Fold:
Amino acid sequence: MEINDIIKPQNLVYRKPSLLNDAHMHYCPGCSHGVVHKLVAEVIEDMHAEEYAIGVSPVGCAVFAYNYIDIDWLEAAHGRATAMATAVKRLMPDKLVFTYQGDGDFAAIGTCESIHSCNRGENITIIFINNAIYGMTGGQMAPTTLLGQKTATCPYGRRADLNGYPLSITPLLAQLDGTCYVTRQSVHTPAAVRKAKKAIRKAFENSMQAKGTSVVEIVSTCNSGWKLTPQQANEWMVKNMFEKYPLGDLKDNG
Amino acid sequence: MKDEVTLMKGNEALAIAAIRYGADGYFGYPITPQSEVLECLEAQMPWETTGMVVLQAESEVASINMVYAGASCGKAVFTSTSSPGFSLMQEGMSYMAASEVPALVINVMRGGPGLGTIHPSQADYFQACKGGGHGDYHMIVLAPSSVQEMADFVALGWDLAFKYRCVSMILADGLVGQMMEKVVLPPQRPRRTEEQIRQQCPWAVNGRKDMRPKNIITSLELDDDKMEENNRRFQATYRLIEKNETRCELVDTDDCDYLIVSFGSTARISMKAMEIARKQGIKVGLARPITLWPFPEKHIREAAKNVKGILVVELDAGQMIEDVKLAVECKLPVEHFGRMGGNVPTPDEVLNALKEKFIND
Amino acid sequence: MATVKGAVTVNTERCKGCNLCVVACPSGVLDLKKKEVNNRGYHYAYMIAPDKCIGCQSCALVCPDACIEVYRVVEK
Structure:
């Protein structure tokens, strides 16, 4: 069978979700953000939620998420995405409301809003990209930066005595009564991508069923910030990140 | 229909007026001397009647960003706070101005700087009128001097905010917020439906119904030319507001030899001082700016045409006086009298100050 | 016995040449162009061994820029 006989519309099994538009994404080659954007767009399409989905983008690398996924968006001040999502969902409970935040936004400057939104059990989904570094500002230390990991602001490696410990925030959120689903996923292999998509779908459904707050942490790479190739970054993540941030469901109220 | 007259605190009148306006949501954090706003709303339980959302947030920072979000959805949302809390909100104020969303923010001022005192002050004038947050922006600043105006300015503030897609602020002080007076409350209006909001605010983020083009509310624009264009648009709106919405009350300014300029609670004290002065044969008039931004320059310039001096009475070290001097282009003596730290002057103190500065040698 | 044949297309202008699809492919179908670049200067992905493709979608799943479409035919 010739290639041209295979490449026919009736044989198409995977394509870019149409909600992910043709705009060139500003992310570095190999960045996990692109995969997660794709999954968010796919899940919204699968749920036919295009007309009632509202995203809140953060300050950080994903600040321009609104340019890529064709739904209504708010762009939050640094760290305040969950406060904004709280108001949107309370004012319009029939909407699918989610935030998309990095580790600096969610777990440093926004920790207060993050914890209280989860504790109130807001019926929103939080997609939390943890790549252990500040990507947009040029590779500075994040709250989740590992001990020994080198960044622009801990150039000799993070030290507990100088910089404190890496913050594993997701288990804290799992302890709160307001959260219904807290999970940690990654997108570095085809199998991981499939699992992450299922997690996002479940979280979005929880939000629409008013079960409480769902948190989907995606342990991610920042190959530019880590100064590795995309492939090396995936390997480094598996070797180093998964020990501190192990994958799997931390809480699932069903 | 007979007016519904009742006796209540300024903070309470404001809260009830907001429910009656058809507000969609309130997000706030307790701080003296304005906590009655949230307390009153929680006691009224408007979610059971109009469907209005009331939420005690975790901080003023969260509150203002909740308001930012609700306003971005085209909803009539508001928050209230007092001076230290308003400082925390400045980032959100700047973002709302940049995103051109209509919101209502109330600052019931207390004495500062710092944690200061819980008693009345007007020392947030600069912060409110000159842009407390970063960037070139303004908001409409309304200064109530009675419980009635605390109620009335809710509707005025929101109407202006939606008309110009800007933030309106009610800049009250602890005296107006806490004192009880008789007030005529407005009738209950229905909240707007989502369909009405879609028509009134086609820019609002409320989902791509019928797959309309997506709406994005953001204050970010990395293209310098586009950001400059945004700024030009903001400024054009501000010029329009200055032209259309400047408000000032003038009392006995036709024949006055001396003019007092004062807003909010001190305007009432000054009014009494003016009455006493007139009984003593000193012709004093009063200009009470109702909008602090836009500042009623023309009103004051007109009222000051034939006066020998202007006394600016405010509960601070002298903030509004700068705008008064600019209004009269420093062509006549402009003096300041004020108390600070939560203290409020008596009418006699005001009159004595006027005599000392302009009449006694 | 049924055999599965697959093929992919790459949106070469969207591709950033990150190589993750090449790594994810279980059959060694893909590679990056060694010399040719797209308008942004990236060595984009292409099928170097199209006969080996089984249409498993692994490459497309891990692609951060959603530039791969996958086609699949089951021959009986």
